[in-house]
Amino acid sequence: MLEWLALARGTLDRAAERRRDQDWVEATWADPRTRVFTIEGGRVLVSYDPGPALVFTPSGKAPEGERYLLGVDDEGVAYFVVRGTLPTIEGAERAGLRRVGALLGDQDSGLLTHAVALEHWHATNPYCPRCGGRTEVTAAGHVRVCPADGSEQFPRVDPAVIMLVRDDQDRVLLARGPSWPADRRSILAGFVEPGESLEQAVAREVREEVGLDIDDIQYLGSQPWPLPQSLMLGFFARARGDQELRPDPEEILDAAWYTRDELRDALESGRIVSPGPLSIAAQLIMRWYGGPLPDMPPF
Ligand SMILES: [Zn+2]
């Protein structure tokens, strides 16, 4: 399994069983030890001295806005995020998950990943899918309920598979998506369809994107990717025998096999750029490569 995934490092007890206990949530919010940060359009305040960290305030100094309970640490300190206007605090900078998700410590990275996912879900799902009426936040930010019909909506997560395909010579397949910069290369990925297993999705996506039949599918780990609402599930797979690459021009602009030496040369010369450390793609490629990749972008 992959050992380090930037966005899968959360350490808090999410306290899911306390979310509907309104008295407990209110008392916890009012507790002077409670730590709060603000999110606005995916951005939060981060300080860099001594190292990258979220900027917290006590709840009494938090801005107005919806409050979502993110969890409780080993000392019993609770963490909330508020959807509101980012305050101006000296020494703090505005940053989003893409920029700081891999830089923050384990606890803060987990808090930010959770907060970004919740904020996006609330912002994009204000209405009841049954009656079209406006829904209300409940369960400390983890459920929306319809006052007209009582139906509950839970945060959505879309599973996506991402797979490193090797051939019989242990070369890796890297490709360029249609909207990527000319030098960007990564492994293949795609969303799981309704009624499909993860393994079926891996095989289908590889066949659709580059025309290869694969086997030996191995699961290596997952991480949330709330940009905006995916869960990335990482795999290795092996292309059967000697098959010709047939990239689908609508999904893949360039696909090629690389030995480890060829990949190192291509990265060091700048002919291609790898995914950054935030992504599970980079971790899968490093697992195959056997160590850090040369000239990896910062995020
Ligand atoms: Zn409704």
From TrEMBL:
Its EC number is 3.6.1.22. Residues 155-286 form the Nudix hydrolase domain. It catalyses: a 5'-end NAD(+)-phospho-ribonucleoside in mRNA + H2O = a 5'-end phospho-adenosine-phospho-ribonucleoside in mRNA + beta-nicotinamide D-ribonucleotide + 2 H(+). Pfam families: NUDIX, NUDIX-like, Zn_ribbon_NUD. Keywords: Hydrolase, Magnesium, Metal-binding, NAD. It comes from the Bacteria. Its cofactor is Zn(2+); Mg(2+). Gene3D superfamilies: 3.90.79.20, Nucleoside Triphosphate Pyrophosphohydrolase. InterPro entries: NAD-cap_RNA_hydrolase_NudC (IPR050241), NADH_PPase-like_N (IPR015375), NudC-like_C (IPR049734), NUDIX_hydrolase-like_dom_sf (IPR015797), NUDIX_hydrolase_CS (IPR020084), NUDIX_hydrolase_dom (IPR000086), Znr_NADH_PPase (IPR015376). GO terms for molecular function: hydrolase activity. Belongs to the Nudix hydrolase family. NudC subfamily. This is NAD(+) diphosphatase. It comes from Actinomadura rugatobispora.
